[in-house]
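Margin note: ligand = heme C.
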Amino acid sequence: MLRIVAGAAFVCLMAPLALAEEIKLSDVQLLGKRVFEDANLSEPRGMSCASCHDPRHAFQGNNASPVAAVAAGSRPGHFGLRKVPTLMYKAYSPPFGFYKDVDDGKEVLEAKGGQFWDGRADDLAQQVQTPLTNPDEMNNPSLEAVAAKIAVGDYADLAKSVFGADLFDDKATAMTKLAGAVAAFEQSERFAPFSSRFDDWLRGKAKLTELESRGYRVFVDPKRGNCLACHVGKTDSKEPTDWLFTDFTYDAFGLPRNRAIPANSDSKYFDLGLCARPGLDAVLPKEVARDSLCGAFKVPTLRNVAVATPYFHNGAFASLRDAVAIYATRDTDPAHWYPQKHGGVNKYDDLPANLRAGVNVKEVPYDRKIGQRPRLDNGDIDALVAFLKTLTDKGMD
Ligand code: HEC
Ligand code: HEC
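Resulting structure:
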């Protein structure tokens, strides 16, 4: 369920960014929107949350970065480390934790939820504070400094009417409240419209083409795509909210290293994902080996995936077709995806050699070896791509 912020009057407004539809936002959500779009909140000024999370682009983008895979920060020469994720449907993520699950009849503890590719923020409100002070993003010296800017900005009165005239007396508390307002905006319908053609198909209001239907069948078939195992939906449900295309769990894909990411020019630098998550020690159950989490990143929703280029946490692929095709031939034709090393193929080369054991090689469709037939043929891949394109919400490009 989306948490709805109670108590505030509903206002109708046309979004300034030429969005076709009218969105209803409460006052606190409207305040959150102002913070989200405020380009005064970076150092130097000029970038907002929306610079990287473009509302017209499923709240995804890269702030016009010269390196497609990672966003440019507020200062020249500063870049992020991971692809900017879409912010749509993120309010559905549970808080980060290790949740009980049953795997092959055995009870296991499975990492799930949180915000960021490694879940290091528990929820949306906590998340807001990070980019504001990240030196490679908005680069403010402190959260208090951000609150001080808002206190003299052009929506200070709105902020005070929502949170009280004394809001800015304590800048730290003010920022916590303002972060809550941004989270409230991110919980609005604007971020979860369920307006894709697939949703209309669920509602019985649209048809899928033959190719898209084939893609759907491959997607849900546990012996072919098996995509549904992680990009979850309930095949017996016509309720769009049962189709988030993720269960917010984590998995190690073993992607090819993206050498275009500036941080990767240091050959000793590896983005280890979940096993290097800040704050993991405090929540890691003793039954779970830390190394088993290396290379694992959160399963992203596939809603709006067609407009969310490039693909995967390291932006390894510019094309959606490649992002799907690697599921078919990662291990049957590794030379196509990975570089050569010492006369062999250096598989899973975005992880150090001693930390590749956690890469998923057991589940369909990853369970193939050289010489075996891939689970998906070229026609299946085209069909999957066509199906994924039905997941784009209205008004996104
Ligand atoms: C310079 C680009 C940039 C700016 C500015 C930026 N973000 Fe992000 N955002 C990112 C990147 C990159 C990630 C993924 C980082 C990671 O997972 O380590 C991210 C992740 C997120 C997530 C987690 C989504 C998920 O899939 O788990 C949320 C929510 C979010 N940002 C909201 C915001 C808000 C709110 C602001 C403004 C206060 C903001 N971002 C500003 C680049 C940016
Ligand atoms: C075992 C779990 C699992 C299965 C099965 C699975 N995925 Fe994924 N998928 C993931 C994870 C985890 C990621 C993110 C990995 C990363 O970036 O490190 C991902 C990422 C993606 C992305 C990139 C999305 C983005 O925003 O960058 C696409 C596209 C995708 N999957 C499509 C598929 C399709 C199509 C199938 C079926 C053929 C499939 N997935 C099966 C776990 C899975």
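Residues 1-20 have pLDDT under 50 and may be disordered.
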